[in-house]
Amino acid sequence: MRKMGRKVTAACCIGCLAFLAGVCLLAPVLSPSDPNLVNPLIKFAGMSREHPLGTDYLGRDLLARLLWGGRNTLGCAAAVTAVSAVIGTGTGMISGFLGGIADRLIMRGSDVLRAFPGVVLVLIIVSILGVGIGNVCIALLLTRWIWYARMARNLTKEELSRTSILAGRLAGSGWGSILVHHVFPAIFPRMLSILSIDFGGALLSVSGYSFLGLGILPPEPEWGMMISDGRSYMDKPGMMFWPGICLLLVVISVNILGDQLRDILEEKRT
Question: Domain 2-269 carries which CATH code?
Fold first, then answer.
């Protein structure tokens, strides 16, 4: 019964994420109009057939901006998370396998980067390279891979003490074969949980920096920027409500999904 509950919960989270991602990917088809089309004559229009979610302070369609903004927000967060996971997990596995001086150098290097608060690092990079979502993504990559590396390193050291891996090393298997065929499958469930939580964090970071004016540049839509635009019009809650609820649904879904998938994969492994 408990296993069935986990699977149902995971399926609901996957369905929610698939729906939001799907409608955002289909923005060119589903969008009722150009997200950047300005029409002051219909600003703050209510819900209608032409504008299902109404319009903003410039008369731009909110549904169109929500869909196209989701492409930018989800796409940037997914790119940052994927690259961070690949770099961090690979670095951590190699560090844990090699040990010794190489391990200490890699970990001390990650400690140096971790000593810088993420916001400070973003501000430094933006001040040097300029405002833009690409520069924000670079700054996020420099800090987010560390968590994958440290966790992968610790899990790799734990797995290397197991009998099956010791047997493989005695049989003459190369380090690449051991890491790919033995270590990675063993640590994958726990790394997946970290990835899901980190995706939610990356999503909030991308939106947060766009909210501050450091990420996506106007007039391109983005969920954080849409919330920022709505601050001056608190009597028109739709401008902030719709992107806010989308962010909430995605973050909650990925966190719950990561926990459920980790438990399911761990049970299958044991």
Answer: 1.10.3720.10
